[in-house]
């Protein structure tokens, strides 16, 4: 083993194996390693013989015979006996202005599928004030039991107040899976709860399933800018937490004959002393745009960004009783507002009919339309991804195709429907 002038054993680089990845450069505590001509070079007089470069090298290109004490990796492993105490699939029932969010019922429906594979029950976690009717609705949509925290302090959402209450509920009930809608409220709340419980949280999932061998929740979401789909596990912590966007899963049917248990959970809610609600600004629901509820969407892509054609697109959407939406490039160009954007960084939609005009079909966009029942693509590029995956594709110039579609619709749609279209 080579030594330096201080008689210290030093590491040696096998140049043929070295890939020049620089991992050892960043790991060396004394800065004695440099990359020269694509190969790591160790300055012998600076080397202290710690051996850290040997442990980090992915190519086994560094030799060091002296025994190295590896750092003990600190993990927060939970014993199997402790994990076994967690049972059931819990769903947060989000309430806003006395109305339950649709995404909550969508997650209850998915929760039933997951619970069936685990042979367990579905629980609703409901926080609010005067929510008795919503608790009953949770039973009809698929919950076996609903834990209710009804208190005037929960009438208006405050993250710390809600987060502390639900954290305590999780500690008492111990669900193995906890699902929350990825609404603005849900995204804020889920991070508070996961932090307090010191568990993992996979955000904006597009798929949930159960690994039947390990009995773990498989949480799938886009990663690396939406270019690949990653499936994430939470092995050592409970509950396994996930947020899911609205419209990713289908809305289950309500069954008023279902039987279930409504369990009042006594929790002394304390109003947050740092926050006082001075005024609540209500959204004008009559004029608000919500493309997530549209049954028909005419979606404009980068290839349909000429504003002179927008009246034509509006007419097509109007005849179909739908709305105009778009992909990200049109929002970035200032042609349409963000509330109209579909995709990973926009809204997830599930219309009965999706018509994509000039939409290329990038992964980030496809994630947002996964729940669409029928997809029609209009594009002059026959090799576009959207053309390949659509149920029906029309290849050609949309400026020629759409007027013909409008003409055909006017000839077929009853006059009263055309007049009533907005």
Folded structure, characterized:
By secondary structure, the protein is an alpha/beta fold. The chain folds into three domains: about 10-65, 2-Layer Sandwich (Alpha-Beta Plaits), CATH 3.30.70.20; about 80-265, HUPs (Rossmann fold, 3-Layer(aba) Sandwich); about 290-420, TPP-binding domain (Rossmann fold, 3-Layer(aba) Sandwich), CATH 3.40.50. It has 13 helices and 21 strands. The chain has a seven-stranded parallel β-sheet with strand order 11-15-10-5-8-9-16, sandwiched between helices. Strands 18-17-19-20-21 form a five-stranded parallel β-sheet. A three-stranded antiparallel β-sheet has the order 12-13-14. A hairpin with a 2-residue loop joins β2 and β3 (about 40). Residues about 70-80 and about 415-420 have low confidence and may be disordered.
Helical coverage, percent range: 25-40%
Q: State the CATH topology of the largest domain.
A: Rossmann fold
CATH evolutionary superfamily of the largest domain:
HUPs
Give the CATH level 1 class of the largest domain: Alpha Beta
Number of distinct helices: 13
What is the β-strand count?
21
Distance between the termini: 82 Å
CATH architecture level-2 label of the largest domain: 3-Layer(aba) Sandwich
Shape label: globular
Structural class: alpha/beta
Radius of gyration (CA) equals 28 Å
Task: Please give the largest β-sheet.
Answer: 7 strands, parallel
């Amino acid at each position: 083993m080579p030594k330096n002038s201080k008689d210290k054993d030093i590491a040696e680089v096998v140049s043929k194996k070295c890939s020049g990845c620089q991992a050892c450069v960043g790991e060396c505590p004394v800065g004695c390693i440099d990359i020269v001509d694509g190969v790591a070079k160790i300055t012998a007089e600076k080397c202290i013989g710690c051996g850290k470069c040997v442990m980090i090298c992915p190519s086994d290109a560094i030799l060091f015979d002296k025994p190295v004490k590896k750092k003990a990796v600190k993990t927060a492993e939970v014993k199997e006996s402790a994990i076994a105490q967690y049972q059931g699939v819990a769903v947060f029932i989000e309430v806003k202005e006395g109305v339950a969010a649709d995404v909550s019922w969508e997650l209850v429906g998915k929760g039933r599928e997951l619970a069936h594979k685990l042979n367990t029950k579905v629980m609703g976690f409901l926080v609010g004030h005067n929510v008795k009717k919503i608790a009953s609705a949770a039973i009809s949509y698929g919950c076996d039991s609903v834990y209710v925290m009804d208190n005037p302090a929960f009438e208006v959402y405050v993250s710390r107040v809600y987060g502390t209450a639900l954290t305590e509920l999780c500690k008492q009930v111990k669900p193995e899976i906890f699902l929350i809608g990825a609404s603005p409220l849900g995204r804020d709340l889920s991070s508070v709860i996961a932090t307090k419980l010191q568990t993992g949280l996979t955000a904006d999932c597009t798929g949930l399933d159960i690994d039947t061998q390990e009995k773990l929740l498989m949480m799938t979401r886009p990663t690396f800018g939406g270019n690949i789909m990653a499936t994430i596990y939470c092995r050592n912590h409970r509950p396994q937490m996930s947020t899911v966007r609205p419209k990713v899963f289908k809305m289950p049917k309500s069954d008023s004959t279902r039987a279930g248990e409504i369990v009042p959970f006594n929790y002394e809610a304390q109003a947050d002393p740092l926050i006082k609600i001075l005024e609540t600004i209500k959204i004008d629901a009559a004029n608000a745009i919500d493309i997530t509820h549209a049954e028909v969407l005419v979606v404009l892509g980068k290839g349909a960004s000429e504003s002179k054609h927008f009246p034509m697109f509006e007419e097509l959407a109007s005849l179909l009783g739908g709305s105009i939406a778009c992909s990200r490039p049109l929002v970035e160009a200032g042609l349409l507002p963000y509330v109209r954007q579909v995709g990973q960084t926009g809204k997830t939609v599930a219309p009965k009919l999706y018509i994509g005009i000039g939409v290329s079909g990038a992964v980030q966009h496809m994630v947002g339309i996964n729940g669409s029942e029928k997809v029609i693509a209009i594009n002059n590029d026959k090799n576009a991804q959207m053309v390949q995956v659509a149920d029906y594709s029309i290849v050609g110039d949309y400026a020629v195709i759409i007027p013909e579609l409008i003409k055909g619709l006017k000839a077929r749609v009853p006059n009263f429907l055309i007049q009533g279209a907005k």
